Amino acid sequence: MSSELVCLSMEGGAAATTPAALPYYVAFSQLLGLTLVAMTGAWLGLYRGGIAWESDLQFNAHPLCMVIGLIFLQGNALLVYRVFRNEAKRTTKVLHGLLHIFALVIALVGLVAVFDYHRKKGYADLYSLHSWCGILVFVLYFVQWLVGFSFFLFPGASFSLRSRYRPQHIFFGATIFLLSVGTALLGLKEALLFNLGGKYSAFEPEGVLANVLGLLLACFGGAVLYILTRADWKRPSQAEEQALSMDFKTLTEGDSPGSQ
Amino acid sequence: MSSELVCLSMEGGAAATTPAALPYYVAFSQLLGLTLVAMTGAWLGLYRGGIAWESDLQFNAHPLCMVIGLIFLQGNALLVYRVFRNEAKRTTKVLHGLLHIFALVIALVGLVAVFDYHRKKGYADLYSLHSWCGILVFVLYFVQWLVGFSFFLFPGASFSLRSRYRPQHIFFGATIFLLSVGTALLGLKEALLFNLGGKYSAFEPEGVLANVLGLLLACFGGAVLYILTRADWKRPSQAEEQALSMDFKTLTEGDSPGSQ
């Protein structure tokens, strides 16, 4: 009920408001995300000997980097427009782009870790479904970033071009995030079956911990998706902001439209 | 451009129209879905000895039933309101419920197949991440069906209750479908690692076929999500239908609101 009232006041162009339940959902998503990162660290520390670059432990940098970059940071980059719904559009947009850059760089370190480890060990590359999905995610993520930057931050794209691209950008952003979650689940499963083998079915503590980690991954994906898709939590269109902020664009080309 | 025009004409309450691109996207999703089912059959037939209930081949009924029920039929049940956008709401609603029942029954056969196989072989149950996710999907799917039936088909829920539950029903429906796709990917990976072992990294034909199958699963999930979430493809609100059709409900309680 309260969120409906807030929605009405926003449509009327009233002062900045935040739907009553949104902060609780965001806090819950952050709790899930941080638990996820901590539990990945705990799994690698307790059962896989920890992390080091110049040894067999180099592999362990891969899951940790991927969970921090392509799950936690990517997820939070998607939530920026909901969390900072009353900040200037331009600030939010730059934060969105920056979080995605951090995610991309950390994921790149994770990729280098696994390819370098495979090379040193003489293992084959890119044969598994996890690796195929992973490469697909990485390429799509990079392309999405480049196209997003060209349309929304780099001066050049017209108002109408931005409006038409925006829904595609949002759909592909959410899809790439979900594919990242799926790829992480596949990687986790692979790591368990390679290392635990038959002991997995004996309910070994590592197996149970990793299963809980997998469920947490799925729950974090679900929580981000819920906050992102709830219609009355979308960033309100701020007409006055469109007139005032230029988002790096020239006056002649007009500015970016409405909410994202 | 054409879809925008269609959208405008719908808002103006004009005659039944279908967005120009929608049929092509639906056809593409069906092509993906049928290829998925055929390729699952081909994988089981070519590399796993086919399917039979009273033998070791009983296990193979599990992946086939799950792909037909919880992927292909569940995905298509979600698309019913887009594909039959100009049919009577009540007909579409019954079709949506029926497709979900078929999916549930086929998935149940698939569940019985794997538990029965495990029992005969003396294998442990419910230790893997795939099985945990699978049970979660099945329980959520059953609860979603029951709650959906009570709100939308069974007479009783008021107009305002239906309006408030509808967005939740849609979100959880899409989430359960995506979790089903993720669970299928985990199961496929499990089947590959259990059976292929070290040969997986030698690019065995079965491994490559199963990887392609995995990518197809992800693509089908993406295609269904795209058709479902595209704003201008949503079923138009039909005021006259609300007044005419009662959807099994009494006059005093009013009918279900707008589009789904």
From TrEMBL, chains A, B:
Function text: Transmembrane reductase that uses ascorbate as an electron donor in the cytoplasm and transfers electrons across membranes to reduce monodehydro-L-ascorbate radical in the lumen of secretory vesicles. It is therefore involved the regeneration and homeostasis within secretory vesicles of ascorbate which in turn provides reducing equivalents needed to support the activity of intravesicular enzymes.
Superkingdom field: Eukaryota
UniProt cross-references to Pfam families, sorted A to Z: Cytochrom_B561 (PF03188)
Annotated catalysed reactions: monodehydro-L-ascorbate radical(out) + L-ascorbate(in) = monodehydro-L-ascorbate radical(in) + L-ascorbate(out)
Protein name according to UniProt: Transmembrane ascorbate-dependent reductase CYB561
Annotated compartments: Cytoplasmic vesicle, Secretory vesicle, Chromaffin granule membrane
One Gene Ontology molecular-function label: oxidoreductase activity
Domain Cytochrome b561: 28-229
Keyword set, alphabetical order: Cytoplasmic vesicle, Electron transport, Heme, Iron, Membrane, Metal-binding, Translocase, Transmembrane, Transmembrane helix, Transport
Transmembrane portions of the chain: 21-46, 66-84, 96-115, 135-157, 169-188, 208-228
GO cellular component: chromaffin granule membrane
Obligatory cofactor(s): heme b
Source organism per UniProt: Gorilla gorilla gorilla
